[in-house]
Amino acid sequence: MTVRLYRDDPYLLEFDARVVARREHESRPAVVLDRTAFYAESGGQPWDTGTLGDAPVVAVVEEGDTILHVLGAPLDTMAVHGRVDADRRRDHRQQHHGQHLLSRAFVETASARTVSFHLGADVSTIDLDREVGDAETARAETRANEVIWEARPVRVRTVTREEAMRLGVEPPDGAGDDIRLVEAEGFDVQPCGGTHPRSTAEVGMVAVLGRERYKGGSRVRFVCGHRALDAFRRRSNVLDRLGVLLSSPLEQLPQSAERLQTQLTEVERRSRDLLERALEGEARRLLDSAGAPPTVVVAVYDGWSPADLRTLALRLVALSSCVALLGSRGEKAQIVFAQSDGLPHDVPGLLREAAESLGGRGGGKGNLAQGGGERVDGLAGALEHAAARVRGASKAP
Ligand SMILES: [Zn+2]
Fold this sequence. Notes:
alpha+beta; 9 helices; binds zinc ion
């Protein structure tokens, strides 16, 4: 069985070992060593990475009692020098020990027990057996940080199952008779196989980022140490940018954003109102120059949206008995055709024909249809052709 060097020294990053077996894991080469400083994923803590000789260690997993070092390249030698990635190990020490402290703090301040936890690549979580509120969460967060700032010694020792029970520790199922305890002096004792710092101070800080209801309790998201500093920086940067954009001091950002939203709603309402009035005016101008009804109104605009064309067309056919043939030139040609109730023309048919002549498509039903095509140059001609068809049909007996 492999000697687990990290258990006695979680700061050990380099070691020499012998390969005792070669395997394959998910079609990658893997080796078993006589001793290792690599932590294999277990108990909610992710594996270490690093190198064995020149081969990158991409995963470390336990299969029964065997620790498999999964490699990114084959390793031919029997004797190897191992190097554990220092930043990742330190990060895991900080996150994992921070988790122990936060979990204990929730027990102390809110009688909430941790039923499971997950050390994630970005954010870690603990799941509490009861729901906690803002004030309880803040109290637990403060308490955990106080214990960090007191720089209490962290000790690891192995005791018998009976001793563990006497200390009020419940050994996990299948833990055997030797129970490894991780103790933050005078604050917390937990059975744990993970890598922990020598002092609570190394955790630096525990910062709760959020919380949600989860399985009748609460799931609390948190970061520790370097990640807490990163999270603080990222949030500061975002808030600074918002402060400049909204010309607002930090404390007034929410009010500034709310004010902006209110203004935007008002501006949108007013712009809709003005557009309505402009379209109404445009409809009357077109009808004034169109002569006596029933008549055909043809108009081409630049860069109008199909929605605005439709609004104008509907306004025209409501104000006077007419056929409206409207178009807009943009990246594509847009067309909207409409007629007043009681007029006899096949509006969808006329539109389909016009759209096809523009190299596009369109459709509709009854008295309204819209479409478009790529041939912007053909727009005026297509509308005139449709107008001629309408006039011809109107003259027919
Ligand atoms: Zn632990």
